[in-house]
Write a structure and sequence with these properties.
The complex is a heterodimer of chains A (116) and B (113). Chain A is mainly β and 116 residues long. Chain A is 0% helix and 50% strand. Chain A has no helices and 12 strands. Chain A has strands at residues 4-5, 10-14, 19-21, 24-25, 32-39, 46-52, 60-61, 64-69, 74-79, 88-96, 105-106, 110-115. In chain B, the strands form 2 sheets. In chain B, strands 2, 4, 5, 6, 9, 10 and 11 form a 7-stranded mixed β-sheet that branches. A 4-stranded antiparallel β-sheet of chain B has the order 1-3-8-7, with no helix packed on it. Chain B has strands spanning 5-7, 10-13, 19-24, 31-37, 44-50, 53-57, 64-68, 74-78, 87-94, 103-104, 108-112. Classes of the chains: A mainly beta (116), B mainly beta (113). At the A-B interface, strand 5, strand 6, strand 10 and strand 11 of A face strand 4, strand 5, strand 9 and strand 10 of B.
């Protein structure tokens, strides 16, 4: 079974509008971390936001927020006020276990295109 | 403050050859992880190094090996290259004490002919 599922291969959004990128995860471990990364065409993975499984509040970082619904096992990324520079591939990832280290398991990614 | 650096940027090899990729972690980081990203896919975890030891390993054959040096830099070695090893190889570093947010380098694009 897929540990991380991103069901949207591609998404389009108008500049200055908000967009939600979907991510569902599968784990039986009560302790885990969820991450979102942005990968422009240059290839470098850029860290955007982190949510721990025990965090009570949804994480926010500037224009990025993570809509964490634990019971539904979803961790959607919301980008507000989209900019042309947001056009990139976006990956959701999970680290399982209570340690502060360990492998990240990535989804297949969603390509976001921002139109002017 | 330099981020994660990787060398070389691009590499072309032929089947059966061996390759070494290099990674310098972000300043202050002591843990290095390596990932393989095939075209159009998400990265796949190869292994993680901490205190010069392999701490965790993904589902990759023994042809993939690594090393971490006392200055925390790392190498990824791949022997007996196959066409399927063509990919972007990403190195990520993370700081001591957690949380384990991994910061990635620009990657090395390996092409096996």
């Amino acid at each position: 079974a897929q540990k991380i599922t991103q069901t949207q291969p591609g998404m389009f959004v108008q500049e200055k509008e908000a967009v939600t990128l979907d991510c569902t995860y599968d784990t039986s471990d009560p302790s885990y971390g969820l991450f979102w990364y942005k990968q422009p065409s240059s290839g470098e993975m850029i860290f955007l936001i982190y949510q721990g499984s025990y965090d009570q509040q949804n994480a926010t970082e500037g224009r990025y927020s993570l809509n964490f619904q634990k019971a539904r096992k979803s961790a959607n990324l919301v980008i507000s006020a989209s900019q042309l520079g947001d056009s990139a591939m976006y990956f959701c990832a999970m680290r399982e276990g209570g340690t502060s280290y360990g492998k990240l398991t990535f989804g297949q990614g969603t390509i976001l295109t921002v139109h002017p | 403050d330099a981020g994660v650096t990787q060398s070389p940027t691009h590499l072309i090899k032929t089947r059966g050859q061996q390759v070494t990729l290099r990674c310098s972690p972000k300043s202050g980081h002591d843990t290095v992880s390596w990932y393989q990203q095939a075209l159009g896919q998400g990265p796949q975890f190869i292994f993680q190094y901490y205190e010069e030891e392999e701490r965790q390993r993904g589902n990759f054959p023994d042809r993939f090996s690594g090393h971490q040096f006392p200055n925390y830099s790392s190498e990824l070695n791949v022997n007996a290259l196959l066409l399927g090893d063509s990919a972007l190889y990403l190195c990520a570093s993370s700081p001591p004490g957690g949380p384990d947010t991994q910061y990635f380098g620009p990657g090395t694009r390996l092409t096996v002919l």
